[in-house]
Design goal:
mainly beta; 4 domains; 3 helices
Length: 644
């Protein structure tokens, strides 16, 4: 149970709110049948109309600090700002505002032009709500080599419901990306146009070729290692289509910056440059403190031969060991090649033709005892295998390695993975329906989920959705979680923190990447706003008591009640109740101040989300009508709380 902090008239916060009712002596009963609420407020008189936003899955009316009196100080007009986060799914009419007062009601649709994002993402005559649509960028590979000096950036629409009707192809915009190394030099650029592929997600891949001169050191400098090459920064902007053309606007000249300014372009992040191929290095697999295995990098082609480097620690005093390799159908043993550096070892192999296992016996030569080599490890031998050249070969092959020391009888083992692919996959990209999550599950207990899918990007720009098993983990489950099938990121109410730029890790085969999310949470404690905390009796006003007892003929009790005047009760004032909060997130950099989703001046009215949990501590003193109206009943003091 949480007791809400209440905003009193002086805007100070306290842990509970006192509701006071005053007693006025009056014996006459008036206006017996009138049940219309009479509101009490410390604010000027205003039109107490009740409004709701229809056609939205996630939306909030707002209160701006210091503007309540300015906007609503009249009985003729009422102003209600609101925030539309997510329209209803499917083909539904435009969101509308429905307002009622007593038995009067009115409804009007929200004009479509107010529901369009800025800048406008669709072409002329849009028929979609693009208010929260965003173009997101994902660099396919953060390392680019001089052998293939090409940067690929995947762009996609976020914030649009995947189950709603797709925009017309001619309405989708283009995206331009530039690579900046030095602000004073010309920067290459490329563009692509979003299109509907991959299950209704508007995506495209821009392929940007870098100048060859960017992969060589500047004149007069010594040759630097690959990691010391000057990297580049990528920026992008959304471009509307020109006229009736279905092609992206032509790039007339290379972009030139001034003093590092890139105008209103958004950053897509850095890219590192290396000399030669940007192929990933092989994995080092440790069997134990003595032996490690250098696994060849993936992907591996059908029919390709690969070698595993077996290395020994230079400080090891081992005299002999036996290495075994167990493999499955599709992997064929080829040979064992002793290393030239490891002439101190005698190596013998044992295998049977067609056998899925290999044994290698290694004995240190007597003449080499006591020799030590420089470096932490030195290579003893290369074990070579060849992949079968059959189409239906499993995409993941494993080799189990075992090492045994005859002198002690101890063993150790490890498993290496080889990933087979005929396609030239450059990377994987996770696509989320939206990259911002408003965690209302903390308030309602109902989870909020965002669909996610993973696609591969090939060298030629082809995009394919991944149908196989994908791995995923959240870097902070106190902020957001992922489903077991990695097809959803979600919050279920157990999280208590929000964060900007939170990363969710995704892996597929030998590839890995991250999805960047922002999660907003309601700031606790919540704030309750009551139009008046002192509910007095309306002087000269009483209302009849409607009893549930069935009347009896000639009842003496009824005559006694009428004589004592107990058929009427005091009429107390009403007050409007609102529960407010800010939606906040921790900044990406640790130690910074909280970030407000709508700014510090705007609070979201979350009363509808907590209606079922709003309670009056003593219902004899006051009670809630439909969760939003507080009605005084008797003399006393009580509190309003939220029970969760």
């Amino acid at each position: 149970m949480d007791t809400l902090r209440i905003a009193m008239r002086d805007a100070s916060l306290v842990y509970s709110m006192l509701l006071l009712t005053s007693f006025w002596k009056e014996s006459e009963c008036r206006g017996g049948g009138d049940t219309q609420p009479r509101f009490s407020s410390s604010l000027p008189t205003y039109f107490p109309v009740s409004c709701q936003l229809q056609g939205a899955d996630s939306s909030f009316f707002l209160r701006e600090a210091g503007q309540e009196v300015m906007r609503n100080g009249s009985l003729q007009t009422r102003t209600e700002p609101f925030f539309l986060h997510q329209p209803e799914a499917g083909a539904v009419p435009l969101p509308s505002v429905n307002c009622s007062y007593g038995n009067l009601t009115a409804e009007a649709p929200v004009p479509l032009e107010l529901l369009q994002g800025s800048p406008r993402l669709l072409g002329s005559s849009p028929t979609h709500i693009t208010l929260n649509w965003k173009v997101r960028a994902h660099v396919v590979s953060r390392r680019v080599g001089s052998a293939r000096p090409l940067v690929q950036v995947l762009f996609y629409l976020a914030g649009r419901r995947w189950d709603e009707a797709a925009p017309l192809p001619e309405q989708l915009p283009c995206v331009r990306v530039i690579a900046v190394r030095e602000p004073s030099e010309a920067s290459p650029s490329a563009s692509c146009r979003l299109n509907e592929v991959g299950g209704g997600v508007g995506i495209c891949v821009a392929r940007l070729e870098l100048p060859a001169g960017w992969f060589t050191p500047s004149p007069g400098r010594k040759r630097l290692p690959d990691t010391a090459l000057t990297g580049v920064e990528l920026y992008y902007s959304v471009q509307p289509l020109e006229g009736e053309s279905e092609e992206c606007p032509g790039i007339k000249e290379q972009w030139r910056g001034q003093s590092g300014a890139v105008g209103d372009m958004r950053s897509a992040g850095p890219v590192g440059l290396v000399v030669g191929p940007a192929r990933p290095r092989g994995e080092r697999l440790r069997l134990d403190d003595n032996v490690e295995i250098l696994v060849p990098p993936s992907p591996i082609r059908l029919g390709q031969m690969v070698g595993f480097g077996i290395s020994m620690s230079s400080v090891s005093s081992l005299e002999q060991f036996t290495l075994r390799a167990l493999f499955k159908q599709g992997v064929n043993f080829v040979s064992v090649k002793p290393s030239n550096v490891a002439s101190a070892w005698e190596i013998k192999q044992e295998t049977l033709p067609g056998s899925p296992s290999l044994s290698v016996f290694c004995q240190r030569k007597a003449s080499s005892t006591g020799e030590r080599l420089e470096g932490s490890f030195y290579e003893v031998m290369q074990v070579e295998f060849e992949m079968d050249n059959i189409i239906n070969l499993q995409s993941t092959q494993t080799i189990q390695w075992q090492i045994e020391y005859p002198s002690t009888g101890t063993q150790a083992e490890a498993v290496s993975h080889l990933y087979i692919s005929q396609r030239d996959i450059q990377g994987i990209v996770p696509l989320a329906e939206d990259t911002e999550i408003v965690n209302t599950a903390i308030l309602t207990g109902r989870r909020v989920a965002v669909p996610v899918k993973v696609v591969t990007v090939e060298w030629d720009g082809t995009v394919r959705e991944v149908d196989d098993t994908v791995g995923c983990t959240s870097t902070d489950e106190d902020v957001v979680k992922v489903s077991p099938g990695c097809d959803t990121v979600l919050v279920n109410g157990k999280e208590m923190r929000g964060r900007q730029s939170l990363m969710v890790n995704f892996t597929y085969l030998y590839l890995s990447t991250q999805l960047e999310l922002t999660v907003w949470v309601p700031r606790l404690p919540l704030q309750m706003d009551v139009s008046d905390t002192e509910l007095s009796q309306v002087k000269g006003w009483r209302v009849p008591i409607f009893s549930n007892k069935r009347p009896t003929r000639d009842s003496e009790d009824d005559e006694d009640d009428e004589r004592k005047g107990k058929g009427c009760t005091l009429q107390y004032q009403y007050a409007l109740v609102r529960v407010l909060t800010h939606f906040v997130a921790e900044p990406a950099a640790p130690g910074g101040e909280l970030v407000y989703m709508l700014g510090m001046d705007w609070q979201a009215d979350i009363t509808d989300l907590v209606l079922d949990y709003l309670k009056v501590e003593d219902p004899r003193i006051a009670r809630l009508l439909e969760g939003r109206v507080l009605m005084g009943k008797d003399l006393g003091i009580t509190t309003i709380q939220v029970h969760t």
